[in-house]
């Protein structure tokens, strides 16, 4: 243990270290030895991340010889270092399977790398541990994974509707099925669209995921930073969260942002098509209301914030590799709580605005005080 945290010690040869440092964007794995919990095993390591690959303190993906895959995130843009962990705990709380996390201390060749967040990979092992049968798995690697026929930034037409997705597991038809699905949700209308959505989307589970992204304020979580899988039985699409560093009132660069930055409709083509049906929009609104009342509360989330922050504090005090100041770290519990209060008021206001348009399908009196009819 180091500063109360488990230690991960990596040994890499001089040649391997030079090869790793040569290109921050390389996808090539380098062989290493990993010691953790008193046991040493062979493994392979590479850098990971988006814009953070250019930072001095790198993040890593490590594959152990036994098959376990872990991600070590430096969390350089999060002064609290708990936003990913807190978000995944919250997602689990609202019924969305999410990666397990733990904070660890990393050494490479005896040199202290400092504090990291260890994150479970979403792969076959993830599904097996949760008894989730699945048919295919894709990663939403960039913001072209928006369930649209056009790119979000330029508005230009996509040459391939699978743009933005990284194939991980499945069969020879996985990509073509996804392309057909995206094409059809924009071609079909009315009852045919409704039938298509009900056949190929686990709608209640999708709304759970959507609510989680909206409540945590993950602007980058709708069009990328998620895992898309097909259920094995009914073969419906479902989504799992990934990369929630830019949440709870800060963006992906760690800058404070308004609690109203993320609209409650989210930002992708699938959500847009689902919410055009008044009864589905009502179902989503009622789900958000219920979460505001029961899960997105200081009583439920507050103890998790305090637990993560308290456990991390000794390591933060001795980690000189952190960008954020120690005083900023100490203020983050209050910062996150303030975000929750502001976010709740904003969502209540938006749901009240929805109420008029949904009056024919909304109950006469909704559950959450503050948006009663």
TrEMBL record:
It comes from the Bacteria. Keywords: Capsid protein, Virion. PANTHER family: INNER SPORE COAT PROTEIN H (PTHR40050). It comes from Paenibacillus herberti. This is Spore coat protein CotH.
């Amino acid at each position: 243990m180091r500063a109360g945290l488990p230690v991960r010690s990596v040994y890499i040869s001089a040649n391997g270290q030079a090869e790793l440092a040569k290109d921050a964007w390389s996808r090539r794995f380098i062989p290493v030895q990993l010691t953790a919990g008193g046991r040493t095993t062979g493994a392979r390591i590479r850098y990971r991340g988006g814009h953070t690959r250019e930072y001095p303190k790198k993040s890593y993906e490590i594959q152990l010889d036994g098959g376990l895959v872990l991600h070590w995130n430096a969390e350089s843009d999060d002064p609290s270092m708990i936003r990913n962990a807190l978000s995944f705990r919250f997602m689990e709380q609202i019924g969305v399977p999410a990666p397990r996390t733990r904070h660890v201390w990393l050494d490479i060749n005896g040199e202290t790398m400092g504090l990291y967040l260890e994150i479970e990979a979403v792969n076959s092992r993830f599904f097996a541990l949760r008894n989730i049968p699945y048919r295919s798995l894709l990663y939403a690697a960039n913001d072209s994974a928006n369930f649209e026929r056009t790119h979000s930034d330029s508005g230009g037409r996509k040459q391939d509707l699978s743009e933005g997705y990284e194939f991980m597991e499945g069969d020879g038809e996985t990509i073509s099925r996804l392309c057909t699905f995206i094409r059809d949700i924009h071609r079909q209308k009315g009852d045919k669209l409704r039938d298509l959505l009900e056949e190929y989307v686990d709608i209640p589970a999708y709304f759970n995921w959507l609510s989680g992204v909206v409540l945590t304020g993950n602007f980058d979580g709708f069009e990328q930073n998620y895992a898309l899988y097909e259920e094995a039985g009914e073969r419906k699409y479902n989504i799992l969260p990934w990369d929630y560093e830019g949440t709870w009132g800060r963006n992906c660069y760690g800058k404070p942002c308004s609690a109203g930055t993320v609209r409650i409709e989210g930002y992708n083509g699938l959500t847009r098509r689902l919410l055009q049906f008044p009864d589905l929009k009502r179902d989503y609104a009622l789900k958000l209301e219920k979460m505001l009342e029961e899960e997105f509360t200081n009583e439920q989330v507050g103890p998790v914030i305090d637990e993560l922050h308290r456990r991390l504090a000794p390591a933060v005090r001795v980690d000189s590799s952190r960008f954020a100041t120690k005083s900023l770290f100490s203020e983050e519990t209050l910062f996150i709580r303030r975000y929750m209060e502001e976010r709740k008021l904003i969502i209540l206001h938006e749901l009240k605005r929805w109420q008029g348009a949904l009056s024919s399908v909304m109950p006469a009196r909704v559950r959450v005080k503050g948006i009663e009819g």
